[in-house]
TrEMBL record:
Listed NCBIfam families: quinone_pig3
Species assigned in the record: Tropicimonas isoalkanivorans
SUPFAM superfamilies, per the entry: GroES-like, NAD(P)-binding Rossmann-fold domains
Keyword Ribonucleoprotein attributed: no
CDD domains per UniProt: p53_inducible_oxidoreductase (cd05276)
Lineage: Bacteria, Pseudomonadati, Pseudomonadota, Alphaproteobacteria, Rhodobacterales
The protein's name in its UniProt record: NADPH2:quinone reductase
Residue ranges of domain Enoyl reductase (ER) in the record: 16-326
Amino acid sequence: MTLPEMMRAVEISEPGGPEVLKPTHRPVPQPGPGEILIRVRWAGVNRPDALQRAGSYKAPPQASDLPGLEASGEVAAVGPEVSGWSVGDAVCALLPGGGYAEFAVTPAAHALPVPDGMDLREAACLPETFFTVWSNVFQRGGLKAGETFLVHGGSSGIGTTAIQLASHFGARVFATAGTAEKCAACAKLGAKRAINYREEDFVEILRGEGGANLILDMVGGDYITRNVKSLADDGRLVMIAFLQGPKVELNFAQVMLRRLTITGSTLRPQSDFAKARIADSLRDRVWPLLSNGEIAPVMDSEFALEDAAKAHARMESSGHVGKIVLRIS
């Protein structure tokens, strides 16, 4: 495969709103030891991209400053010390950054094959979301069959993935969403009960069900104290984002008396080794389900690379159900 010297990309011109995303041209990156270069066909759009754009989520050292944490395409080049991948292989991958471009590099251990029967557009929606849900709900949160699970933002990319996986592995799934349409989408994906948070109190509903054994939350703010009230004894709360802020006053006596666990994580700062272990687990436990069509990404909309600002505006409007992707080539 002959590689060009320059590529189309979208960069963050300065911290700010969607309008600061600007088309540009950058040199094509080169894969280092243990890395592959991907010719990107589709890139997923995620909340961390918007946080980076706003100036509140810096790229790790050595990572591209371009946004974009997941992509699909073909392997364009293989760096030293890489095995298992060849030029031309169809691939989807978790990226350290740089997905909003025609080419991106990533550790080979963070790449996964495109599931059987799935096109590249759908495959671009998998890495960031499935890495996040699998590591937080099943590895960190320890969700088991028969347990009651509550996910906030049930119609988001994270939410639609969490509902499907938790339901498949035997949990009783509850989800919150902000419209009747979004609640219907959650129920269709396997939620036992979809809660319209504008009209109903999820605390009252979960307590009526005996409490949640596990809650996955990306809202934060006053949801943190409400989540604690919603947990069953020995329940676990896993935080993955703070759309309403990370600070709250919390009575930890309840945590002690009811033996609650409050934890959380962010994916991007974790070590390459930690992400590789998540990838291995996904390949063994989840990728067969995707290949069999038992679960699938929920698609909302697509935008051209140069329209990344419109994609961000769509995401931040919270009108979407499922994943938003950029069409690169």
